[in-house]
Amino acid sequence: MNPIQLINRTFILAAAPFIGIFCFLMVSHLSVELPDLQSYVKTEFSIQNELLKSEQKLELAKTAAVQTRTTIERFYQLYAQSTADVAAMAQSADTVSNRPAAIFDSRISTKLGAQPAKQTISANLDMKLFYLNEPNYKAYALKVDVKSDKALKMVLGKDKVGSSETTLEAARRYGAVAGINAGGFADDRSGKRYPLSTTMLNGKYVYGFEPTFEDLAFIGMNTDRKLIGGRFSRQEDLDKLKPSFGATFVPVLLQNGKKQAIPAQWQNSPARAPRTVIGNFKNDQLLFLVTDGYDERGGSGATLAELQDKLLQLGVKDAYNLDGGGSSSLIYEGQVINRPSDGKLRPLPTHFLFFK
């Protein structure tokens, strides 16, 4: 084979695959799909529309947020103003509500003829001490506004039935700001000193209820912090008044602003004496009067009739005589205010104590 033939065969063999592929394509009629450019255009427009809508929504949200913030700021301003207005109204209400008490205190001070010598004001009580110089006696007036159940309580001497201690000792032991002697007592042969007749502590009878006899009267405070007292023949009658604590002595001086008859024995034996009396005003504030006397022979101190007149002059509604003579005791801030007729304080079985 010459070289030319060899070249031709080589060319034919090299071109054969391409010729076969061409023939196959011609016979098979294959088609090639080109991308749909229109759908791409539509998709692009759709994305742009969504972006535009999102931007519009963002603008609306921004506008709503600004409006909400403005509304909140306005509401806060109104709230702050309302709070200030309510506080101002509350202060005005307190001022108005306290005005009657201030007027009352002013009137009592005028009637007592002086400004208080001592004063204690706390969440529990408002207490004022006045010195009185009457024509026939010298006295001390303790006006007490009891604001809580913690302000006033009665205690037993050394916290035991049959024991006794001075009002000063009881006040110191309890940390009381002031103290007053309470009910009467009876001594037994062994020297023990017992509270007289019906006595109550913390709503319980110390040794049972005893019907009132002779001219005795129960004097105490109830669970509503109000003064109660009088003669009781049945326990249920006293229980109706919800007594919290109290003691017994004699006699009743005033009831509902009217003088009560003073038993003959107490008019003359002794006629004058150191006295301790308790009363209340129409607004339930308490008044304690303690008078000085040199002894118990009847030549010094006050008569019960004089004290009735003084109590009525001061506007007291109900009043009761507590134990007197050498038992009369008034303690304020650790000091003995009155002048005990025994020359020293007498140990007693019951005391009224006041707390800040």
UniProtKB/TrEMBL annotation:
InterPro entries: NAGPA (IPR018711). GO terms for molecular function: hydrolase activity, acting on glycosyl bonds. The keyword Iron-sulfur does not apply. It comes from the Bacteria. Keywords: Glycosidase, Hydrolase, Membrane, Transmembrane, Transmembrane helix. The keyword Transferase does not apply. The chain crosses the membrane at residues 12-32. It holds the Pfam family NAGPA. This is Phosphodiester glycosidase family protein. The lineage of its organism: Bacteria, Bacillati, Bacillota, Bacilli, Bacillales.
